[in-house]
Amino acid sequence: MDIYDELINIINTEPDLEEFLTHESKWEYLYNLSHIRQNVYDWYDFDPESDLLEIGAECGAVTGLFTERVREVVAVDVDERKCIVNRVRNKKAENLSIIQVESYDKADGVKNGFEYASIIGELSEEKLLLAEKSLRDKGLLLVAGDDPKAEALLTEKGFLIKDKYFASPDYIFPLEIRRDENKSSSYIYICEKRVTLA
Q: How far apart are CA 3 and CA 33, in angstroms?
């Protein structure tokens, strides 16, 4: 049984994932199943009538939070097995579509005009191209990670950084979100897509 089959089995058999995790220390379980992962955006005031594109949704650690906060969520990932786990984990969410894509810069089937897009973790040009293509003008991109080159890359790809926060101890298992750096290298950027001139 590989890790994805293990995760599906746990989701299907454990009635309380947080209780289950109190007795487990396996990194893959904590990373993919811990409710603490949702703290990265739990504090953010989303417009409940909006649509959100989650880029690199992985196994759905934060997807469920998005489905509770906005009208529609489209979660994309390049890994089919991760998409399967996400579908199992969030099977009750009626406002969720999960799409496995060949690559983020060739994400056919993803609509345009999202009010929000989210990227957590690895920040790549391909993910930013999909965000730029899919967001409406002045739509917001939420980026959480620890890449020191992120600010330059975001600006280069046409995003205006409106707010910057720091996640402590890190963006993966954040216990506190602050405006001051407080020795944390994990950041959360709130960026606006620049208006496209015709």
A: 12
SS3 assignment for the chain? CCHHHHHHHHHHHCCCHHHHHCCCCCHHHHHHHCHHHHHHHHCCCCCCCCEEEEECCCCCCCHHHHHHHCCEEEEEECCHHHHHHHHHHCCCCCCEEEEECCCHHHCCCCCCCEEEEEEECCCCHHHHHHHHHHEEEEEEEEEEECCCCHHHHHHHCCEEEEEEEEEECCCCCCCEEECCCCCCCCEEEEEEECCCCC
Beta carbons of 74 and 50 less than 8 angstroms apart = no
Measure CA of the first residue to CA of the last residue in the chain; give whole Å: 53
Give residue-wise pLDDT tens across range 79-127.
999 999 999 999 999 999 999 999 998 887 899 999 999 999 999 999 9
**pLDDT tens per residue, range 133-155:** 999 999 999 999 999 999 999 99
Residue 4 is which amino acid?
Answer: Y
Exposure letters 101-111 (e unless 16+ CB within 10 A, then b): beebeebeebe
Q: Express each pLDDT in 37-46 by its tens digit.
A: 999 999 999 9
Q: For residue 196, what pLDDT is reported?
A: 62
